[in-house]
Amino acid sequence: MWLIFFTALILFALCSVIYISHFSRKLTGNKKLFCHGMTAVLVLTGIADLLMNFGEFKGAFAAIGFCSAIEFILYAYLTERKSPVTAFFGKAVLAAALLELVFFQFPSYRLLGGDYEHTVLNISQGELENCTFENGGIPVGKDEISISYHGLDKKIGTVWVNAEFPENETGQINFFVDMTEETGYYYRLKAVDSAIVSNSVQSQFAMVQLAGKSTDARFRFSAFGENHSCVIKEIELNKPIPFDVMPLRMAVIALFSAFIYACIKSAVMNGEYEKNQKFCHYAANAVTLIGVCVVVMFVCSQIPNGDFFGRFKLTEGNQITEELVLAFEHGQFSLLEKPSDALLAMDNPYDHGSRFYGEIDCLWDHALYEGKYYSYYGIAPLLLFIPYHLITGYFFPEDIAVMIFSSLGLLFLSMTYSFIVKKWFGKISVGVYLSGLVMLLAGCGIWCCAGRPMFYEMAVSAGFMCLAAAVYLIFTSGITGGGKTNLPRIFLSSLLMGLSVMCRPTLAVYAVCGFVFFIINAKKHGKGGMLKYICCAFLPVCCLGAFQMYYNYARFDSVFEFGIKYSLTINDFTHTEFHLHNMLVGVYNFLLAPPAFIPDYPFVSAPFSFIGLNGYYFKDEGTISGLIFLVPPIFGYLSGRKALKLIPDRKNRILSALAVGTMGIIMPLVIVCAAWESGYSARYMADFSWQAIMGAYAVLFLQYIKSENAEKKRVFTAAMGICAVYTLIVVSIESFVFAFPMISFPEFADMLNRFAAFYK
Fold first, then answer.
1. What is the model's pTM?
2. How crowded is residue 647: how many other Cβ atoms within 10 Å of its Cβ?
3. 136 in the Ramachandran plot: left (φ > 0), alpha (ψ -120 to 50) or beta?
4. Is the residue at 439 inside a domain?
5. Are residues 385 and 406 in the same domain?
6. 508 and 464 in contact (C-beta within 8 Å)?
7. pLDDT, tens digit, for every residue of 300-315?
8. N or C terminus of the chain with fewer C-beta within 10 Å?
9. pLDDT tens digit string along 502-561?
């Protein structure tokens, strides 16, 4: 079978090279007959691979056939018209296929050309330690077990373990093998250091690289998590490792390469946005749709038992979807459940240690004040949750809420970006526009909310959606620049700004910015339209602000107290002291922490640093790289002074500096610095990331459209394309690992591990 595979691979490579060399002219004679005939054979073989059992080569011939068909289609297309990017894509497809079938299938070549004897080890006859053979297998649980064999005297290239996991359960088992070899007497500890994952055939195999024959082998197994278990059914030596072909990996290699090449060489990608608006419109829609689909995938992958429609019939909810809903329906701000007498009798009920050791029952992460429970989370989502409960009798699912809020937020963010580019930066290149959109959506911070759709993330995603929609309505209302002002849009933007604060009090800094923005632009409406403008611009946000202050006072006797001070968590916020070092920890990790690239899972990570803090600082699970290293164009702020000099009018220069500096630099820093009390959580990135990114774009795009140096523009377009691919890779991996941690989602972690590692 290896001979057939190599023959097919060589024929594919040969035909592809001939097609690529004839992209601009048609094949004739024997070359045409050979290439078309071999392509037909390879495609038919690929179809057979999909329909029949090709053993360990399953998927390899299908990949060859599919890529052969692509090369033929590209050849047919390019003989009729010229397209350098499409031609390069053909080369990228060939490279991706060869990398996939040779480089990334390295484990499958392990036994090729070696003297490896296939051996089946009888697990019932092995030397068992801390385990027993029963019902045809050996159970594996939390405690480590071992199975030893002596006198093997064999060259060992691969080890295969048939591990049977409980039905409909996911799990992971640690798998180690200690072996002797000819170059040493003692065991080589962990000669195999691997893991077996449920529903992953590939994880049952492990390569072995020893210097010579092995006489003794000790196989050790233990559960990765407390609830993980399996039964070891078989162990075999030198069993061929099957191919693990991943079409997505091939597509990523080919498409990312072609995108970067297009940003460097393509006339369209280096052409002006305003001259290619139709293409940009469709491309932006595609990028946004992909982002929304990823959000849906993240959320749906975590729905219990995959019961999507069952989520709409919940009889129980959380602090926001149930407890606050029921409280408001009963006409009160305090929650219905009463604190226990033991909790109220404590000298300091906010002391977590006293509650824990005294075994005092309380509602976790709720606010306690004057003998009543309250929620300190924003109430704006109740505009959806209360009607839903009144109409259906069920409580709205928190994960679906996160999915809706995150998706709509991405949509409004994309629309805002496109409008700003169209109105002020239409001279930027198509490549800069699309790269900027990719980085904006990837770096906006909402992925950690979609990746863990709990009620904490629900509040953040709701605020993200409301603020993004408000900003879009402001820019499209006609309040900026010339033209007639659209008062309904101004009214809605003001309303949504107020609602964003009622989702996330943190976003009040942007509501203040919006308020000032409305004041600055009030003069253009004159005396005749001033009253209408004031009513539309200020009445909604002021009314909602007044209600929020009343809501605060009614609960905590202070219009400025949102309730976190009285929350029942690990911290006693009533006695929290401010230290500059705590604030610096947040600044470093939210903004400055660079990603770490390593050759092992998770491959890209963001190590958290306390930067020498000698004290307590709360850190939530999961981290993501600092914003300036996550989205490199953030460094564009360093050229802010140069950009301002390009604005000739002094008034506009000052207003531009205030707008960009306040929204993109000052307010994000205020939010990051203010997070010292709450600590670090990756979801907070959604509060300030996209604003900072868009501010940096304004600085860079202004310099681009004012420049007359065509070469610099081409270099900048190429740099933006490279940065977009970099950001997409880093954000994708970090967000994936955050959403699907190995302990809870071993199958997803194994998928990423196999996707990125060619040597496992």
1. 0.93
2. 16
3. left
4. yes
5. no
6. no
7. 999 988 889 999 999 9
8. N
9. 999 999 999 998 888 888 877 776 666 788 888 999 999 999 999 999 999 999 999 999
